[in-house]
Amino acid sequence: MRPRRPRSRVPLAWSSVWTLAGSVVWAVAIAAGGCTPEPKPAPVATTADAPAGAALLAELRQAKLELAENDARAILMAVKMHVLRKATCPPDLATLERDRELRKVPHDPWDRDYVLECTGDGASMLVISLGPDGERDTKDDIRVDDRGP
To answer: E strands within 1-149?
Structure first.
């Protein structure tokens, strides 16, 4: 009886060849730039998007107004603390920072300084943000005084 021959490894060899050939094809295609995805066109704004954009701008405006009012209230509280400690109004807002009543004097949401009006003895205090237009004594000014809401 003849000894058995080991099974042929041809199928395994052919699968290796096919794997190698597939890798070469992919490498050539990638090098040629054929496998990169097509760039997507930029989205086009439609008239249906306009109300959403307007609503977003209105929310942003309202958020800035609320932030300015909250900052002005915080400054007013610091002024009150200064008056209680020193029995006089601070000459400017930087004094509140130096005397550590405020960690840092904020700017309003439109990147302008707040205005402090205060009588010498602290009987009347007013903190003003000039609002979006940046002009004093207009209807968009945010005014917070010590008389309450």
So the answer is: 115-118, 125-129, 142-145
